[in-house]
Amino acid sequence: MNRRALVTAGTGGIGLETAVGLAAAGYAVTVVGRDAARGGSAVERINAVGTAAEARFVTVDLASLSEVRDLADRVTADGALSVLVNNVGAMFDDRRVTPDGIEASFALNHLSPYLLTELLLPALRAGAPSRVVNVTSGSVRIPTGRIDTAEQQGGYYGLHAYGRAKLANLAYTLDLAQRLKGDGISVFAADPGGAVTTMTTGTMSSSRVVAPWLRPFWPLVHKAFQRTTSGTPAQAARSSVVSARRPTSARSSPSTAD
Ligand SMILES: NC(=O)c1ccc[n+]([C@@H]2O[C@H](COP(=O)([O-])OP(=O)(O)OC[C@H]3O[C@@H](n4cnc5c(N)ncnc54)[C@H](OP(=O)(O)O)[C@@H]3O)[C@@H](O)[C@H]2O)c1
Fold this sequence. Notes:
Strand order of the largest sheet: 3-2-1-4-5-6-7
Oligomer: single chain
CATH architecture: 3-Layer(aba) Sandwich
CATH topology: Rossmann fold
Number of strands: 7
Bound molecules: NADP nicotinamide-adenine-dinucleotide phosphate
Strand content: 5-15%
Helix content: 40-55%
Structural class: alpha/beta
Number of helices: 8
Largest sheet: 7 strands, parallel
Radius of gyration: 18 Å
Number of domains: 1
Distance between the termini: 30 Å
């Protein structure tokens, strides 16, 4: 029987390359995104290398928690799941809120993958040995001090909000790995490094993502960003693909693939 993999934000950037890597390894892959045309092209690309069942695309806005719940219901109804790659992530230059009224960085980088994972645990247990791969980022080093509110105080800066949400998700990943010890579900945090994608060429080219005191130095800061995100999406997807496939002796130990 085909082993099934779900890749969120799998129609472009690092997520699409992850889906391609998993399909080439024999997984029946479902990718999630908002745009049907991008979804269709992604499925074509995945099927060109896939050796298992046809790839599928599901239209979901992962910023909406009710759509995340619907996605989990659909995936669960299809039966056992072997791999969940929570690849969705986004950075915004201006503060915005989701349809649920939640600050969007926190919703997309943490709440959405958290909720999806919790709702899919029965399907992942049924697919054991199975894996959860949460895509993290070097930006987890940015926030300092104690985080005890969903939103940062004292002004919105995209990079900081992003790093904060990714850090919350990394803490969740470590906790989940402990919680699932012995359940047959391995949990990984995968750091893609940096790649040229919609995120890095879009929002990350606006000086508004950094704090006002840094903006006078924007040309230098931007150059540094470009240098650290100059890889290809395929190279960046490697950490997720390896985490999803790697045989592990220490099941459910938190690890970071690089
Ligand atoms: N690129 C980097 O250098 C870098 C570095 C460190 C970590 N990361 C992490 O790696 C992951 C992938 O990043 P990326 O750079 O590949 O991002 P990206 O290029 O912006 O991702 C594009 C994908 O995300 C989907 N997407 C965006 N918003 C969505 C939403 N609300 N609901 C559903 N799908 C959505 C897009 O599909 P639609 O537009 O059709 O919805 C598309 O499939 C993220 O978690 C990111 O934080 C990236």
